[in-house]
């Protein structure tokens, strides 16, 4: 197959998967690179998507399955791009593929190997709310449904106990293969789409908000996993480390907005969704949304937010985000803020959810250096400024889609993916 028939996509979230399927339908071969062991991105961490409150996994799972079954798409999980040479229409790419130590064709995903593993560490995919083993899948329903063995934690692979074989002994299908090695994969492609998503701002940096000090303070993604049916508590909305449900919850908007210098655009709707879901789950809970600004960028979003403000939550305006402070007294949290009358005020609650800013992925600087493309003043991948709605980066033949370019919702991410695919398909045919 000619180089012009192959495309590299970095990241298998909604934007990356959508782009991959569109390119496949156009007759292109796609190399889909994902650093994690699963596809779907952060969307599959959500229980529901706004404004229609559709089941997130129900929406994404068919797309994930289609990716796995599409003969035009080669999915490389546990993989990262290491080197990119060449030019538009003829890129030479080196990919580092980390060993899974499990034969994916032999594994049936029965999970019988998990319990025998003696290693217990925090599950970072589940926002460290529960533990996992050295052999694991990130969450229930992960696709591909094939576990990995994490070498740095495995007693056998890291040399702490080379005789350990408890996971192997538990596997009835002889799926473990500790002879696997990390490998370099070289591919030639005509174009590249970067869809590496986002991270949340580390809110522990904002000491006044008490994250990491007070167990009742949560990030928005921790909260998403807390009420997700495939999450750590299987959807039971309970306080950290207990089976007690909160009676009062404060949702704080715009956390880190002054630190990042931009509005993340999706936080207000996520906060409204959280309030709606809390009220559905725990009808007697008192909910406060404390905000200093509202960004409701779609006509359906305003309607949804108005409904929540009337039925599910009390919205409280604060005049100065930087004067908010959260303290702890016993099992309760005190949220101090400046109200709309410019007076100091406070609430006493059981739980606080911080709707924090979306920021570029941690590895974005390294990746953009490898790709030789520019970033904007906020650290996201820059697009060509002379074209409205551009998805073209500073290097011809490389496009960006989704939150790698900046914070946005699912619909906008998909639109960018479609624009990036259009850019790829517009290449001259040799």
Summarize the structure.
This protein has 430 residues and is α/β, with parallel strands linked by helices.
Helix proportion of residues, in percent?
10-25%
The end-to-end span amounts to 13 Å
**What is the count of helical runs?**
9
Radius of gyration: 23 Å
Biggest sheet record: 5 strands, parallel
Number of domains: 2
CATH topology-level name of the largest domain: FAD/NAD(P)-binding domain
Mean pLDDT: 94
β-sheet strand percentage: 15-25%
Low-pLDDT stretches? none
CATH class of the largest domain: Alpha Beta
CATH homology superfamily name of the largest domain: FAD/NAD(P)-binding domain
Instruction: Assign an overall shape.
Output: globular
Query: Structural class, from secondary structure content?
Result: alpha/beta
Total strand segments = 24
CATH architecture of the largest domain: 3-Layer(bba) Sandwich
Q: Could you walk me through the main structural features you see in this protein, from its secondary elements to its overall organization?
A:
There is one protein chain. The chain has 430 residues and is α/β, with parallel strands linked by helices. The chain has 2 domains: 3-98 and 182-198 and 360-425, 3-Layer(bba) Sandwich (FAD/NAD(P)-binding domain), CATH 3.50.50; 201-358, FAD/NAD(P)-binding domain (3-Layer(bba) Sandwich), CATH 3.50.50. 22% of the residues lie in helices and 25% in strands. It contains 9 helices and 24 strands. It has helices spanning 14-25, 56-69, 166-170, 220-227, 257-260, 267-281, 299-311, 364-371, 410-425; strands at 6-10, 29-33, 48-49, 54-55, 73-76, 79-87, 90-97, 121-122, 131-132, 135-136, 148-149, 183-189, 191-194, 199-200, 217-219, 248-255, 286-291, 314-317, 325-329, 332-338, 344-349, 351-356, 358-359, 398-400. The strands form 8 sheets. Strands 5-2-1-13-24 form a 5-stranded parallel beta sheet. It has a 5-stranded parallel beta sheet with strand order 15-22-16-17-18. Strand 19 and strand 20 form a beta hairpin. Helix 1 (14-25) crosses helix 2, helix 1 (14-25) runs parallel beside helix 9 and helix 4 runs parallel beside helix 6. The longest helix is centred in the C-terminal third of the chain and has 16 residues, at 410-425. It is globular, with a radius of gyration of 23 Å. It starts with 5 loop residues before the first strand and ends in a 5-residue tail after the last helix. The mean pLDDT is 94.
